[in-house]
Amino acid sequence: MQHKAKDEWKGRNMDMEANTMAFTNPSREEIKEILANCGNIAVVGLSDKPERTSHMVAKAMQERGYRIIPVNPVAQGKEILGETCYASLSEVPEKIDIVNVFRRSEHTPPIAEEAVRVGARVLWLQQGIYNEEAAAIAQQGGLTVIMDRCIKVEDAVLKPRG
Fold this sequence. Notes:
By secondary structure, the chain is α/β, with parallel strands linked by helices. The protein has one domain: NAD(P)-binding Rossmann-like Domain (Rossmann fold, 3-Layer(aba) Sandwich). It contains 5 helices and 9 strands, in the order E-E-H-E-H-E-E-E-E-H-E-H-E-H. The strands form 3 sheets. A 5-stranded parallel beta sheet has the order 4-3-7-8-9, sandwiched between helices. A two-stranded antiparallel sheet has the order 1-2. Helix 3 (108-117) runs parallel beside helix 4. The longest helix is centred in the middle third of the chain and has 11 residues, at 53-63. The chain is globular.
């Protein structure tokens, strides 16, 4: 019997006949470890508008103690959340641990290439963003890849405030 089934957790189609999936996110335990050992998070597509999701998520992460580095060519040189905004990952003058992406899926492969070039450790595509080409580029470059997950939600679930 040939049919497609939904992978319950991500809502991605999986070919039951082949019984394989091209991409799987790290386990919750691995994600917890990534967040625990993270210093700098470069947020690609971080808006300077407080009502935008990228701004709200980055602000919440900053309030939880993470260093946020804004990356947005439209806001280059401005301050967002008290940090200088850069046009690209290549312009960031310090080490980047996580590249957190708020861009449409089709725009992520070049971001993955740049993340590899700057030596980031993790490529994190926010909830609703999924691109297997970007994932393959990052994984081949040695990065851990997380897709279609909200970094703020993961942080809150894995490191609840007591």
